[in-house]
Amino acid sequence: MSTLAWGKPKIEIAPFVAGVLPVTPTWTEVTNIKEDSTKLNTAKGAKTEAPIEGGDVIDIRYKKNNYSLEVEIWATKGATKPIVDSDGIVAVNYAVRLTPEDVTQAGFMFPKAAVQVEDMFTSKDGKTWKYTFDALLPSTGTKVQAYTQP
Amino acid sequence: MSIQTFWVGDKQYIVSETTSEEKAILKEKYPDLHAQYFPEVSVEPNEVNVSTEIKPAKKVKATDETNN
User: What is the dihedral of CA A48, A137, A143, B26, to 10 degrees?
Assistant: First the structure.
């Protein structure tokens, strides 16, 4: 057991079927993840201030944050993409969940996400596929929810 | 306000709708998770104010009904 939720994460994805996440989703583990490429990004919600004469602010209103999960995969010889795309566009929504290396730590889940794929290549790394999951508002709860592996 | 939820495997728990049976199972299997979403509020005994002030007894006027 570790104190932090760091280390090698387990990432699983499940496609929506007919526009919804099935009651028993078909989870597929994403493999060959490039080291240190997994990132949960938070785009802070816009801030609106109510300034008064003299420069003070009497109130502040925030809009909600938005979230994305990035992960880069080694495109090894003969490998196929875990999610099929057409020029980066993925036709269906996906659920994605992450379990930290220490499975007793709480991970997180996007119950509903739009997916974008980038084909990448450098002479240093060769070919990789970068997947970006943008969290969407699910039918119940928030865009990012705590997830624990049973 | 958004609904507070969390997942254990494929089961989504809505915090406000979790039954006591489910809470008991979560407490046994996932104590940290249970503590996070269902914190047990320690109940402090109420302070009892006992007045030590001694009040004088009420004066009662004695009346003799037979004299009426």
Answer: 130
